[in-house]
Amino acid sequence: MAYGNLATIYYEQRQLDMAIHCYNQAILCDSRFVEAYNNMGNALKDAGRVEEAINCFQSCLVLQANHPQALTNLGNIYMEWNMISTAASFYKAAIAVTSGLSSPLNNLAVIYKQQGSYADAIACYTEVLRIDPTAADALVNRGNTFKEFGRVAEAIQDYIQAVTIRPNMAEAHANLASAYKDSGHQEAAIASYKQALCLRPDFPEVTCNLLHTLQSVCDWENRDTMFREVEEIIRRQIKMSLLPSVQPFHAIAYPIDPLLALEISRKYAVQCSLIASRFGLPPFVHPPPLPVKAEGKHGRLRVGYVSSDFGNHPLSHLMGSVFGMHDRDNVEVFCYALSQNDGTEWRQRIQAEAEHFIDVSAMTSDVIAKMINEDKIQVLINLNGYTKGARNEIFAMQPAPIQVSYMGFPGTTGASYIDYLVTDEFVSPTRYAHIYSEKLVHLPHCYFVNDYKQEKL
């Protein structure tokens, strides 16, 4: 026991070699000293000796199969190794044997959220808050999940509760501002962004989001100064291989170098690829390209549209008739809806007129990608790009042999897995093809659809 206590002191002082030595001595004195194995595993992991750490955690579990900390620690290692399913299994095992440990719940929630299982993530954070109702971090994390799930009002309530518990929590103020902005409360958003910056002046995301929000209310005070500051932030982040704080969709409206905008999109595309890799899917096999019609045989081109905007959204207002107007003798259309049915006439119309309409909103991204591949889609069209509700990791998994960006995002995706951008000569002039990662497909006159069959204008 004395060696164990001494080891803990060394560990807290970050004298890892001495801590490991003392834990070893403790185990030599008592080979069934369960906590010594677990604690030495932590010290070994921190010292970069991860394989030895795994052996320690496993030895701990041999002595006590339901040791929640050892299970969680193994989950953390596999999470860092991007072995997500293995990590999740350890977190679930830890949760099954204890009702008072928050860390496996928090980490499992992160996995669920990355996989698009928002309801499961929310359930995990709710359990964390049952354990500790004052856990402001859990409130912020649950709020973030609510927000991504489209439940913005609930997100706002979580953020408000978080800043009530921890008034100096800059992240909570920033996320509250973002939720206010999404719900149309621009002035409240500006106030919360400014409060976040008061608490943390060096907060790049907030600086960039504040600029975008000020733009939306035509507040041009200090405009040039703020744009220069934001461009400096972007360049610094790209140089440091960080995800830029300016989103690609916002960058379109900024007076920045187009090549810088391309770099922003590339960074976001890499992030989508990283998310896709966490599902651990093997590469999809695509059938060899076949002629649509050959030797008297009749085949149809299978085209898939993926969007979160099949409903009361400008995209559906503009494109509502398109999905049902394809020539069914030559084209078979599949619509994959990333959002739940909002009950509007636009959703009902697209659902009724498209040859195949599948609500995949409750599915994880890997399941959606598998479905698309199993449907043998030959051309997959991303109608979101970098807009709200997008699940671009589906495209990063490359379930179809040809993948196209169209309509929702007129800029470059910066993604190696998007082959073409459907646009026009005015929006994307041929002479500027070098600022796009995709090959440009120019429609005559204008790429923008305006549905002439709309009943309500």
Profile the largest sheet: 7 strands, parallel
Helix and strand element order? HHHHHHHHHHHHHHHHEEEHEHEHEHEEE
Strand order of the largest sheet: 5-4-3-6-7-8-9
**What's the tally of helices?**
20
Number of strands: 9
Named at the architecture level, the CATH assignment of the domain at 298-442 is 3-Layer(aba) Sandwich
Fraction of residues in helix: 40-55%
In CATH terms, what is the fold-level topology of the domain at 298-442? Rossmann fold
Q: List segments where confidence is low: pLDDT < 50 over at least 5 consecutive residues.
A: none
The value of Rg in angstroms is: 26 Å
What is the overall pLDDT average?
Answer: 91
What separation lies between the terminal Cα atoms? Answer: 78 Å
Strand content: 5-15%
CATH class of the domain at 298-442: Alpha Beta
| Backbone structural class | alpha/beta
| Shape field | globular
Protein model, in words:
The protein has helices spanning 2-12, 16-29, 34-46, 50-63, 68-80, 84-97, 103-114, 118-131, 136-148, 152-165, 170-182, 186-199, 204-216, 223-239, 248-251, 258-277, 314-319, 345-353, 365-374, 393-396; strands at 293-294, 297-298, 301-307, 331-337, 356-359, 379-382, 402-406, 420-423, 439-442. It has a seven-stranded parallel β-sheet with strand order 5-4-3-6-7-8-9, covered by helices on one side. A two-stranded antiparallel sheet has the order 1-2. With 457 residues, the chain is an alpha/beta fold. 53% of the residues lie in helices and 9% in strands. Among the domains are: 134-256, Tetratricopeptide repeat domain (Serine Threonine Protein Phosphatase 5, Tetratricopeptide repeat), CATH 1.25.40.10; 298-442, Rossmann fold (3-Layer(aba) Sandwich). The mean pLDDT is 91.
